[in-house]
Amino acid sequence: MTGTRPERPILATVICVYEAFIVLGVSLKFLVPLATHAAVHHDPTLAASTINWVSCLLAMASAITLWHMHRSSVLFLGARFGMDLVFFVAGLFHPIHAMATPHSNQGLSPANIAHAIRIFEVIALALTGFIAWYAYKITATKDFSPTQVRSHT
Asked: Tens of pLDDT along 71-92?
């Protein structure tokens, strides 16, 4: 079976740049406070930093492999989607204390902010899933070998 890699579409290039920005964002989140000796404004637990670094490594690997149109990019993007899905579902069972506060007459009540965060999480999860699906669709090798056609005689 003879196959070739497809050419990289524009949207795949945009996805590669997006993944590179994830790497840059996670790196800056951790490296800038260390370099400036400023107070760290993130969760300093080992689990949170490990999860962020794993996500950063998956984003870097998926950007590089998708740039080269390798099928393995689907594995990295799928792993990121799976991680995001697990943490989203786990977050559904974690109560948000802002939702328990009484509703105020202001538009930016703690409950409204908590709901907006949940909606943003759903949109981000859908985007991650779409990116993994799109990479699956575009990195499939095309078979250009001649096919046998059966004649009906």
From this structure: 999 999 999 999 999 988 988 8
Task: Work out whether the CA dihedral 7, 10, 62, 136 comes out positive or negative.
Answer: negative
- Where along the chain do its domains lie? 3-97+106-140
25-33: long-range contacts at Cβ-Cβ below 8 A with a sequence spacing of 24 or more? 26/52, 26/53, 26/55, 26/56, 26/59, 27/56
- 90, 50 contact by CB (below 8 A): no
How much is the average pLDDT of 29-33?
A: 71
Are the C-beta atoms of residues 9 and 138 closer than 8 Å to each other?
yes
User: Whole-prediction pTM value?
Assistant: 0.71
**134 C-beta neighbours (distance < 10 Å), count:** 17
Q: Return the SS3 of 103.
A: coil
> Mind listing the pLDDT tens digit for each residue in 98-119?
444 555 555 677 777 888 888 9
Nearest by Cα to 91 from 61, 70, 119, 71? 119
